[in-house]
Amino acid sequence: MKAPNPEKIKVVKALARQEIVFALARKPRTGRIFFGGSDFTVHQIDLERDKPEPTELGRHESYVTGLALAGEILVSGGYDGRLIWWNIESGSKVRSVDAHRKWVRGLAATPDGSVVASVADDMVCRLWDVASGRMIRELRGHAEMTPHHFPSMLFACAISADGRHLATGDKVGHVNIWELESGRTLASLEAPVLYTWDPVQRRHSIGGIRALAFSPDGSQLAVGGINKISNIDHLDAKPRVEVFDWRKGERIGEFHGEGRGLVEHLEFHPRGDWLLGAGGYTDGFLLFCDVAAKKVITQQKVPMYVHDLAVNEAWDTISAVGHHKIAVLAMKD
Q1: CATH code, 292
Q2: Fewer CB within 10 A of the terminal residue: the chain, N end or C end?
Q3: How far is CA 227 from CA 207, 260, 267, 288, in A?
Q4: How far, rounded to the nearest angstrom, does the alpha carbon of residue 160 sit from its chain's CA centroid?
Q5: Is 286 helix (H, G, I), strand (E, B) or coil?
Q6: Owning domain of residue 256
Q7: What pTM, to 2 d.p., does this model score?
């Protein structure tokens, strides 16, 4: 069998959607995905079928912006500040929790499916017991206001493959790494280039850390967003990824995409062959980086702005969701 080739990507399936799809979760070893977005609804669909048709699990009261799959339980988060538990086999709603006082931005589950982390614009990360819905603890380490005295945002979180560490990243480029079991802060990192403040045009800021990913061995942390922006109304800068040895607090790599756009998702290959970033501007991109060689391998266009994706176990097929489309892409010669 030929190895996956990121320079030979092609769209093998594309499904039009009315809404913007913000979040995706995939059931392992299947083509079954769950997605949610601007229509307030959580859907499921089997992309391996010849003519896949989505079915509805249920609804939030605003945008669905985060999904995490923990065994047979799917947890969804939304701009309504709620987390909702769904049983994916029965299709039933298990519970709903008032989790945050502002918009939920992202979710991550531990590999064993026992804990889900949520981050929101109240600048708090909360850890939840999946089985009971009980909040285990809350983690506070991000300032509520930017240095220019505007509300900040807590966009992203990620959990390491061994389930020991959690990373959270905010609008001004500040990252905290936590010990998941104790809630202790282990390290802090700064990626200020990802944040742009415009004091002239609109007294407005943009950017921030929109994506986080631990390397397979947990020693490295990738952060994604956008370079310094000259025109804040048009995301007028290149996609940017930085990689840190987080224990040493050292930046060990910087990667710049072509064109304009924002990195919304990061994923390390399980053998460390490459780091995949995805996002968009008017259209979408997949950015493959060789961290060891400190170079971009390739950047490929995709048919929509990508907000989230999942890769199969063979790492030759990508399911991606974004602006008005779901796409399946194959990395094969």
Answers
A1: 2.130.10.10
A2: N
A3: 8, 9, 19, 17
A4: 14
A5: strand
A6: 9-331
A7: 0.96
